[in-house]
Amino acid sequence: MVKTRIKQSIDTWDRIADSFHQSRQFTWDFCIKFISSIRKESRCVDLGCGNGRHLIPLSQHCYRSIGFDISRNLLNITLFNLKQNNIHNCSIVQGDLCSLPFQSNSIDNIIYIAALHNIKGKQNRIQSLHEVHRILKPKGSALISVWSKNQERFDNIKSLTDKNSEPGDIIIHWRQHNLNVPRFYHLYEKNEFKRDLINAHFSLSSLEEISIASKKINDNFYAILTKPDEN
């Protein structure tokens, strides 16, 4: 099951990598605000870094950075973008968000933008959040964002109904540049997102709603979290 989930995710994001890059050129203000609050001597990770659009300002701000993604094609684009921006303090790593290849208590700050909701299975998403908690240093902070369930653009998309699906699970097809690639999403209720974060043993500094794609409603949630001191 794990191998199937990982293979499907790699295939999906490798197929749309070039198209995704062309449509994801701009940074999000709340991400930049969080990055600017990070101490410059920090070691930071961008989980689900995609084409590196937030990894670049993160790398420019902090001492050392790592871009992490499941798609090799997206990471190749990220490498090119890092070189174009003359960034030399950043490494890239391919892997699974549910099993992070970093030592416990080794990372000062993490950004995890619009990627948690692409993990199929509640227990897998919870496992990913536990992994974020594990690798953060005590008193370290993380910024995590997900899509909200309450979006008008999903009104005509039916939720998945197979036996392994959960409320909020949907398939959204990537149709840009003449593609037609199905992508899994879990759309969050606000209280569900909050519960999952707290169950992963984070201290919740803030949980906000924000509009990214919609002009009518807030369509994303983002949370700033800290890892309590173990002493």
Count of the domains: 1
> What's the rounded overall pLDDT mean?
94
Strand order within the widest beta sheet? 3-2-1-4-5-9-8
Count of helical regions:
6
Shape: globular
Summary tags:
seven-stranded mixed beta sheet, 6 helices, Rossmann fold, globular, 231 residues, two-stranded antiparallel sheet, alpha/beta, 32% helix, single chain
Topology of helices and strands:
Layout (H helix, E strand, L loop, with lengths): L1 H22 L5 H8 L6 E5 L7 H7 L2 E6 L2 H13 L5 E5 L12 E7 L8 H14 E12 L21 E6 L6 E6 L3 H10 L3 E8 L9 E7 L5
Helix pairs in contact: 1-4
Description of the molecule:
The structure is a single chain. The protein is α/β, with parallel strands linked by helices and 231 residues long. The protein has one domain: Vaccinia Virus protein VP39 (Rossmann fold, 3-Layer(aba) Sandwich), CATH 3.40.50.150. The protein is 32% helix and 27% strand. It has six helices and nine strands. A seven-stranded mixed β-sheet has the order 3-2-1-4-5-9-8, with helices on both faces. Strands 6-7 form a two-stranded antiparallel sheet. Strand 2, helix 4 (72-84) and strand 3 (90-94) form a beta-alpha-beta unit.
